[in-house]
Description:
The complex is a heterodimer of chains A (511) and B (152).
Chain A: H1 2-12, H2 15-33, H3 39-51, H4 55-80, H5 89-100, H6 104-137, H7 142-158, H8 165-179, E1 182-183, E2 190-191, H9 205-223, H10 228-237, H11 248-270, H12 275-290, H13 292-296, H14 304-320, H15 322-328, H16 334-345, H17 354-357, H18 359-387, H19 395-414, H20 417-435, H21 441-463, H22 470-473, H23 475-510
Antiparallel strand pairs in A: 1-2
Helix pairs in contact in A: 1-18, 2-3, 2-4, 2-18, 3-4, 3-9, 3-16, 3-19, 4-5, 4-6, 4-14, 4-16, 4-18, 5-6, 5-14, 6-11, 6-14, 6-15, 6-18, 7-8, 7-21, 7-23, 8-21, 9-19, 9-20, 11-12, 11-14, 12-14, 16-21, 19-20
Chain B: H1 5-24, H2 42-60, H3 75-111, H4 117-138
Amino acid sequence: MIEGILIGLGTALTPTNILFVFAGCLIGTFIGMLPGLGPMSAIALMIPVAASLEPATGIILMAAVYYGAIFGGSTSSILINAPGVASTVATSFDGYPLAKQGKAGKALAIAAYSSFSGGVIAAIFLLVAAPFLAAVSLSFHSADYFALMVLGLTAVAAFAGKGDVLKALLMTVIGLMLSTVGTDQTQGVPRFTLGLIDLTDGISFLLLVMATFALSEALIAILKPSGDDKRQEEMEASTNLGSMKVTGAEAREMAPVIGRSSILGFIIGVLPGAGATIASFLAYGTEQRLAGPEKGKQFGKGSIRGLSAPETANNAAATGSFVPLLTLGIPGSGTTAIMLGALIGYGIQPGPRLYIDQPAVFWSVIVSMWIGNIVLLVLNLPLIPYIARILAIPSRFLLPLILFFSLIGVYFVSFNTFDIQLMVLFGLIAVVLRFLDFPMAPMILGFILGGMMEENLRRALLINNDSWSFLWQRPMTLTILIIAAFCLFAPMLWANFQRMRKGADRAGEGG
Amino acid sequence: MLFSKDRIGGTLLLAFCITYGILSQNITLLPIQAKAAFTARTMPEVLMVLGIGLSVLVLIFPGSNERPQLAGFNWGKAALFLALMSAYGLTIRPLGFLISTSLFLIAGFALLGERSPVKLLLVSVPLVVCFWLLMTQGLDVFIEPLPWFLKG
């Protein structure tokens, strides 16, 4: 492990890579701060740039953008009560009231220290967990991988909101369907190309991500009546951020919260599909319960614990979500799905072999997380008053620029104008589906995993003489599939159980 | 609610899944693979069944009965932006990067309410030129800057 850390340090600490960590954190903060644009859009916008870099540098850049975007999202949550992403919604519960009390600087500092601590602690867990899991998963066969991918896809749906499980599953299947467009990998026959040569190579992952996130976000912002006036008023109100100092008493209050929320966030992050949003809400809820009646009442009115907990947890979860990506090659969230796509674009297959075949990439990602967190604390925090000015840029300038960067990002990779037209079409479809509350992240996950899933299933069948019996004969495959089924049906069964119990209670009271 | 968001979305995706299923039958199979357990059609056929099944379930058990609210949105503006992006895709080659992108940005800013010609030009043109220089000189990504009739 020590050797690995040294390799990681050697790679991550080169002047070029440090520069990209700085740039990534800053760009990520900028983009993440814009309401509506989250880490997924930020990373998607960076892919064309990352594609022209060395694999390790490209991944370091994207990881830095990821952290920066989460941090940026917290800033807009605190300053103008407009969370850039779902994972920073809980931050606004106490961050915004603090800003309203004239303590915006303190709130930003607490958010930054909590994010930093959560990220650093989780990176230590990652350091221990990733090589161990990678070593275990070396014994996995194609059948197990197929089952793992089924688990990853069902878990995403299982963690969807109430009533959204079916929609999330349906969108996952739509993503899997889109992944089958193009020439079949083994037989070489075209599928769903509609006779168009431009579709022979399939739909570009970058195109789909840009269209469904960056492009559709901007289009939705155009659709909604302008919020510029309100935003500028809020910005003017929070121009004076106040002191950024955190007192000793406040630090002591934060310390246990950070410890608990880091562990909770990391564990939630490792679970496929759960992610930073659930982690932040869970940490907030846990701390509210643990705070006792007196302190608990302050939650929602500017509580330091209430701000520190979700901020720590969402950063720890972001780090945790790298575990399944780096060790199993299975993305645990939409963001890591985009990163997986980028890695595949480099010709790198994440998974247990990554640790052995590409140690520089594996370790430098882990080490860059520490560097990224330090950069966020040292560079971004003092710069926040200036970076926050971006929130005052009128959307009439911002939105066309986002559209331009999305379109040109895709065009610069393929130099095919057909891609721009296809992107416009997908952007339109994404807007309609998002307008109807159908989630996009499961579709991206399905799209990314589709090709690998089909390949592993085909290989497993080939090894097993065309028999599907491997699904129940291999203990590992069966176990993973049972967990997948549990993930899928447990929430439904639990909801039914709760309903029955309430019904029984009511009947008891009535009798 | 008959026309809830979930039901409309479910219907649209059901139509997509049925079309996908019909098209999956056009996938050519090599004669030697006719009896294989896994062919180029297997995955699409499984997905078709799953997709149709889940769409029908969404229609039968919608998560919410919320109806889509169409009023109060800038539909016209969004449609114009879609047309503008498509036009940008059509003009980027014949007009070159600098002119087509500048026009795209100027039209975009103007559509969203910017009326000052000076601001329109000052924000778009220098940005496009700087971006082009960054891509060609900094990242070695060449893109034709000028229209065909101005090329040397």
